[in-house]
Amino acid sequence: MKQKILVVDDEPDALEVLGFKLREAGFTPIFAADGLKALAAVRAERPDLVVLDLMLPELDGLEVCKLMRRDPATASIPVLMLTAKAAEMDRVVGLELGADDYVTKPYSPRELVLRIRKLLKRTKGADETGDQIHIGPLMVDVPHHAAQLDGKPVTLTATEFNLLVVLMKRRGRVQSRERLLQDVWGYETAIDTRTVDTHMRRLREKIGVAADYLETIRGVGYRFKAGS
Predict the structure, then answer these.
(1) Residue 148 phi, psi dihedral angles, 5° rounding
(2) pLDDT at residue 127, as a whole number
(3) Domains, the chain, ranges and CATH?
(4) Of 111, 152, 212, 219, which residue is least crowded by CB atoms under 10 Å?
């Protein structure tokens, strides 16, 4: 089956153009023109990924993302924010609320499709070796894209999960922000290293008592503790 991409935008022309490009790339696009319809479509259609504009009628994109992340049934669906709001603070807020990626308008449709493919590949955890990784109270089940803390499920986004897996697999080795952007996000160049910091902050909040395993190496990046 073709992967379903929900495109949320209140501009008909934008929906038409992106819908055409997605069909051309082999996806099945579905559409919503406001925030409330977007939430209804996410719950009814269970898309593989959501391309979400921020400035929407009824309910803005940030609120849609926040509500998706609060609902366990939709929390792991990847969200790519697509918006004309290019300020750094807008980007940070979007990532803080659970967006996996952020693209500003005007955008290259080809680049956007590539970002969608990379994000979907991240969700699959395609090239990981080993079924499960156990360290202390943490366990990640790579094929089932699931994480547990002290035996209880932890709801992580696709990016948070893959970030945790990479750090656990490379336990004891410092990972630079640039390396993480390449290996987790699939970026060939370091677009914005603050993206890594934002996701690390959210990941630490979600894994609670195990957050101490994630060390910040000032001026370099991050490391999963070797001696824990």
Answers:
(1) -135, 150
(2) 44
(3) 4-124 (3.40.50.2300), 132-224 (1.10.10.10)
(4) 219
